[in-house]
C-alpha cells in the first residue's frame, strides 16, 4: 500500500520514514 508525501505529493511505500523525492519526514495523515 502507498501513501502520499504531504510536502511534494510523491507516492511512498507505507513503511517509509523519509520521502525519497523531497527528503522530508513522511507521516501518515
Describe the structure.
With 29 residues, the chain is an all-beta fold. It has no helices and 2 strands. A hairpin with a 6-residue loop joins strand 1 and strand 2 (11-13). Strands 1-2 form a two-stranded antiparallel sheet.
Structural class: mainly beta
Low-confidence parts lasting 5 or more residues at pLDDT below 50? none
What is the CA-CA span between the terminal residues?
A: 14 Å
The number of helices is 0
Estimate percent helicity.
under 10%
Task: Average the pLDDT over all residues and give the rounded result.
Answer: 87
Order of adjacent strands in the largest pleated sheet: 1-2
The main pleated sheet reads as: 2 strands, antiparallel
**How many domains, as an integer?**
1
The geometry reads as: globular
In percent, how much strand structure appears in the residues? 15-25%
| SSE arrangement, N to C | EE
Q: What's the β-strand tally?
A: 2
Global Rg: 7 Å
Fold blueprint:
Layout: E1 2-4, E2 11-13
Antiparallel strand pairs: 1-2
Highlighted features:
29 residues, mainly beta, two-stranded antiparallel sheet, 2 strands, 0% helix
Give a brief description.
This protein is mainly beta and 29 residues long. The protein has strands at 2-4, 11-13.
Amino acid at each position: 500500500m502507498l501513501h502520499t508525501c504531504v510536502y511534494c505529493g510523491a507516492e511512498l511505500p507505507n513503511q517509509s520514514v523519509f520521502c525519497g523525492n523531497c527528503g522530508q519526514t513522511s507521516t501518515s495523515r
